[in-house]
Design brief:
Strand order of the largest sheet: 3-2-1-4-5-7-6
Shape: globular
Oligomer: single chain
CATH topology of the largest domain: Rossmann fold
Bound molecules: S-adenosylmethionine
Distance between the termini: 39 Å
Number of helices: 8
Structural class: alpha/beta
Order of helices and strands: HHEHEHEEHEHHHEE
């Protein structure tokens, strides 16, 4: 279904992942996030390299389940369980429907990702989700994820990022707006979404992500993909 949520701007409230967003999420994310398809495909590639037999995979902030599908459809390891976690009941409903019959060995869990215990895992993915977690809770979450990973396991994080140089930030922001315009969003829709999401989606710069991975204890972390102001990171335990 086409995203037309911000065509009407009456009663603008802070953005939430409610039923109206869940219904159009697949269209919204593809038309708003440059490189989204590649982010998902990279996860499919990485499960082959970093997945381990007899371990858990976690898709945190699973929304409609694109990452769980990439994990399940590309998995070449044995006896894995995919745990798709989201705290939006509407997203959980969509996710269950999307995964049913396409992959096996999965659970869709309605929970805050800060409240889950991570155990015996080889792959944990935060695709466009950490940016919605309170800034002062982010390090504790990454620490917990690190503790739940087996040696050699990985955390894959994709996020909207910002840049410290104002000129760089302005240029990339303009290109991101062009991306949205090219995908059919009007100036009104772009402005309304920006206003609705600005208190909810809080970006970090790349260095903050690297510092967090280091503080948690990851052996190695790198940025394996970037498209404009969206970047994907691989942190290896
Ligand atoms: C931008 S979407 C993620 C997109 C999805 N990972 C994908 O690749 O298509 C963010 C999701 O994170 C969920 N979310 C945000 N904060 C959360 C939290 N603390 N616990 C669980 N889910 C959360 C939202 O409900 C939403 O579905």
């Amino acid at each position: 279904m086409r995203d037309q949520i911000f065509t009407k701007t009456n009663d603008l409230v802070d953005f939430t992942f409610d039923k109206s967003v869940a219904n159009v999420f697949d269209d919204m994310v593809r038309r708003s996030v440059p490189g989204y398809q590649s982010m998902v495909e990279m996860v499919g590639l990485m499960v082959k390299t970093y997945g381990q037999d007899n371990t858990n995979y976690y898709d945190l902030g699973a929304s409609t389940g694109a990452i769980s599908l990439a994990l399940g459809l590309n998995n070449n390891h044995h006896n894995n369980r995919i745990n798709a976690v989201d705290n939006s009941i509407d997203m959980v409903g969509k996710c269950k429907k999307n995964l049913k019959g396409k992959i096996s060995n999965f659970d869709v869990i309605c929970s805050d990702i800060n409240d889950i215990s991570y155990e015996n895992s080889s792959i944990i993915v935060l695709n466009l989700t950490l940016q919605f977690v309170a800034v002062d809770q982010r390090q504790a979450l990454i620490n917990k994820i690190y503790q739940g990973l087996n040696p050699g396991g990985v955390l894959i994080v994709s996020e909207k990022i910002h840049f410290d140089d104002p000129k760089h930030q302005a240029k990339i922001t303009e290109l991101h707006l062009d991306f949205k315009r090219a995908n059919g969003y009007s100036e009104l829709e772009i402005a309304a979404k920006r206003q609705s999401i600005e208190n909810v989606l809080i970006t970090d710069n790349k260095q903050t992500h690297f510092d967090r991975f280091n503080n948690a204890g990851f052996d190695q972390s790198l940025c394996h993909f970037q498209c404009l102001n969206f970047a994907s990171f691989l942190a290896i335990k």
